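Re: How this chain folds, sequence and tokenised backbone to follow
Notation: Tokens come from a learned vocabulary of local backbone shapes, not from coordinates.
Start of record: The labelled sequence and token lines come straight after this line.
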Amino acid sequence: MLYFSFLSSRRKMEVQPHLQPNTDQTIIHSVFPPPVWDSCSFTYFSLLDSEYESWTRRVEALKEKVKDMLMADASNPIKKIELINLLCRLGLSYHFEREIEEQLIHIFNWVPQLFDENDYDLYTTALLFQVLRQHGFKMTCDVFKKFKDSNGEFKKSIIKDVRGILSLYEASFMSVHGEDILDEALEFTRSHLESLAMQSKPHYSERIKNALILPFHKGVPRVEAWQYISFYEKEESPNEFLLEFAKLDFNRVQLLQREELKVMARWWKDLNLAEKLPYARDRLVEIYFWGCSIQFEPHLALSRMMMAKYLKMISLADDTYDAYATMKEVNAFTDAIERCSIDATDELPDYMKVFYKELLNLFEETENIASKEGRSNCAYYVKEEAEQKRGDSASSVECYMKEHDVLEKKAVEEILKICANAWKDINEECMKPTALPSPILKLLVNVARITEVVYRFDDSYTNPSSLKDKITALFLKPLPLQDQVNI
């Protein structure tokens, strides 16, 4: 939570001083940048059933072929690891979760023997480590000791191994507390990758630069898949079969999510809250992007759209609390939320009554859906969460500056270190055996990932132009398909 507080505080420190409290009960217009997207235009999308069905048939045929590849002879575990990594990077691994788990259990149990019998290079060692850790298998980091010299530093002989250095860099983000060798590996690889990018082929150089901005482990799965497909198709000898599979599946999921976005846009248009609450950020498309970043799988459509609706309401509440309402109104709204009843609107100003009514409608929609699925307590838990009473809510940066008597730049640096340690906590919690089921852990990790993407270098939610390319790629621009590969 400190991480999210820190990142969101950057927006508040920049924007809030320019806002004036609402003292005369009149609606003021937003000082935030206008929306990049006209969400109403998304209501005109149409799903081409014939195209979707055609792609689905092809995808299902390709899936069976890949299953055979995954379950084939396991005499070469490194080839199997490379295949699993490729499926993850191309955005296809969600089709084969059971098969991948079975293979990795076998490989993980075989790791000590593998390293006793083979002198693996840096690339292979780091890839094996990354893939196993990525799936919750806590492979020891001692395997990297052989790449150090007698002085305890990484050998200079590996500096020109571009593929190995990049692989070690990506693996270092899977570290947990106490693994100093991985912290050293991160500093070592980061210091050399920029110069190595200048010496590499253009497409590989682009991949390195992209990894330096945001490593695979911290990236949003769907965005990472889109980026890696473009890198992979420029390789000297890509697997054309898997490349076609990745593009077909990407486009198929895009069609479905575009249809969902149409439903979301219609819901938002019918609420008309952008007009009724003009002081707030109108970011429906970006909110849906959040939802897809947390849960992109096609069968999770309902969960994804309901999550996006709640995120949109939280965004409205955030702008109401932080950028518009008086303290009296905030207290009244907080009390109303705690009561969760239409009778609680008496003390609310008119603009809050509109918002509150729609929030109650969303609770009711959740209850109806949960009831149909036999989970009647779902809405109760949602109601138990809205926001803390406002009071004096200083940002984490401001708190750190005051507590340690440092300037803002130093506070940001130190809190980023705290955030890096928080990722180690996340990694540790994902190691088997886990306290929570894998789907829940995956969801929570993706929340951290989308936070990195949106807030790491800028507040891309408040200033959404920096998300435009990603949103265009994920929802509006299909990947070009080549001639079908025989299977």
Observations:
- Residues 240-271 form the longest helix (32 residues).
- Residues 1-21, 387-393 have pLDDT under 50 and may be disordered.
